[in-house]
């Protein structure tokens, strides 16, 4: 053994480095692949990811290699995200330019140099979208899309208020299953669970029928499970392809018992998650969700119990206080009413007595006054009428004398006025009466020169003829 020739590892890796360098030095290649297991370190701006190629029809992985992008490659990824609006993430199908190198410590290294913005959706995501479209098309009676959410028969099932009996579909050697059991069995609230295990393989697209069969076994068991939990541990993105298959999505969507998933992925949502009643990120999260669900029911019951106790105490206290108050009120008001009515009766009695005496006294006085009035009224009336007659007679006599005197004075005045206004008295004052044709002339309008007139004076009458007529505006008769 000691005679066998050997070389150091560094020499071997050096030869590999030289061989690869001689082939790939200064060479770049445009490669089509899917991105998985992507991680980004923002402080340094480094991207670490796997490139995956899958079989065209079977969907199995043909090739897988680790890759990195930094410097100009990271800048090109940033430009790719800005131009396409598509984050550089898992499950996108990309066309990238890479270089190949080998490091004696870090091994084979694929470095991203550029990325074609025309490739925005990865083949894995395309297959997923095609599967979802197929589900909504072929299973429209129990799967439909509402916005970004899928409405299935399973996620519309009502959960029991308490989840206690569980059917677990998982791998028997899964660390996630152990975490799930540990979380349930060591919960802080002392809840107990009945768990039935349905172990199977939960990795690889070709194993989806095995998981479907375990669901069929759960259904055929006729056990009244509160929920079915599908769990597995973490892994690479390609490890979850089994949960993006059509047959498993359809089986979960129409399953008559609520399905809870805790598949162990942190970044992406599988088709099984979308079809299930409740999806959680990890097996531990699934267990915590079940515990929280039961805790919500317990808290609701405790809260209801406390509310009933508090409300009962409040009602009893309020009614006791009301009864005590009512009792005191009845007693006090009864005493008050009796005392008030007694005083009212006594007051009414006094009022009746005093009022009756006063009324009788007033009526007696009124009768006496009426009696006196009846006796004295005739004499007073006769006396008043005699006085009135005496006054009338005296007034008549006095008024008769005054009336006769007034009338005599008026007759004397009228006699003097008549004598003063007689024609003889007027003629004596220097006036004359002029006649024409037997008629008294009162103005000269009808008289013209040559007219014959008769002038009557107090002591004679004159016949005259008008020789001249002069019109004057001053009569000259003012006396």
Automatic annotation (TrEMBL):
Q: Where in the cell is it found?
A: Cytoplasm
- One Pfam match, given by its short name, reads tRNA_anti_2
- Its domain of life reads Bacteria
InterPro entries, per database record: Exonuc_VII_L (IPR003753), Exonuc_VII_lsu_C (IPR020579), OB-fold_nuc-bd_dom (IPR025824)
Give the Exonuclease VII large subunit C-terminal domain ranges: 151-464
**Entry keyword annotation includes Hydrolase:** yes
Enzymatic class: hydrolase
Q: Which GO terms describe its molecular function?
A: exodeoxyribonuclease VII activity
Keyword terms of this UniProt record = Cytoplasm, Exonuclease, Hydrolase, Nuclease
Query: Known catalysed reaction(s)?
Result: Exonucleolytic cleavage in either 5'- to 3'- or 3'- to 5'-direction to yield nucleoside 5'-phosphates
Annotated OB-fold nucleic acid binding domain residues: 8-115
Keyword check for Repeat, yes or no.
no
Q: Which family does it belong to?
A: Belongs to the XseA family.
Q: What is this protein called?
A: Exodeoxyribonuclease 7 large subunit
User: Which species is this UniProt entry from?
Assistant: Chitinophaga hostae
UniProt gene name: xseA
